[in-house]
Design a protein that fits this description.
single chain; Rossmann fold; 5-stranded parallel beta sheet; two-stranded antiparallel ribbon; 7 helices; binds adenosine-5'-triphosphate; binds magnesium ion
Amino acid sequence: MIEDGVVVVVTGVPGVGKTTVIDAAVKAAKSEGINVTLMNYGTVMFEIAKARGLVENRDQMRKLPSSVQREVQRLAAKRIAEAAREGIVLVDTHMLINTPEGFLPGIPVWVAENLRPSVLVLVEADPEEIRNRRRKDETRERDLQPVEEIRLHQEMCRAVAAACATLTGATIAVIPNHDGKAHEAAEMVFNLFKAIAAKLKEVS
Ligand code: ATP
Ligand code: MG
């Protein structure tokens, strides 16, 4: 269980600029002596599944029976929550994963109960901006979705974030990341860290 730590969950549709913003915000925090532990949900899930001999590589993960995947998802939440006993733990994950069967929640109730997030961050941009970023990003193999599908995905993320906040009591911070404004978005996330760090100091 989280005692003195704070879990900040950062979400956003693929290509919105989550990693770009997180990296800059964590760098700024470190330079001011605020320690932020960054955890990638997918990586933690893979480590657990591999240790149990369920998979050898990441691509085998999604082929596991969904019941096993859900169990690994729950265990990953526990592990992240344990790491969050102290300080700020930033979890890079998705509010909703776009699957052929529909949107899959990244923070279903059994994850929320273990993770106990304090802050849900939604990184957002205009659907047109997101589409262009995906198209230009040669470092990844990104789906070229129609703008309207990206818009719907982003709207659904807001709805699910509201449900998750209602279940957990977490706050929701919407961070716009418009073209050429990643620095401003990172500063907003950094300000969030500063507010949390000040609170942690108050109670210690
Ligand atoms: P994923 O969920 O798939 O990991 P992501 O949300 O982490 O995606 P990034 O990899 O950070 O997205 O960014 C996607 C692309 O958009 C990158 O090429 C990045 O340089 C670019 N990008 C990010 N933020 C901005 C911005 N504010 N203005 C212009 N380009 C941006
Ligand atoms: Mg990323």
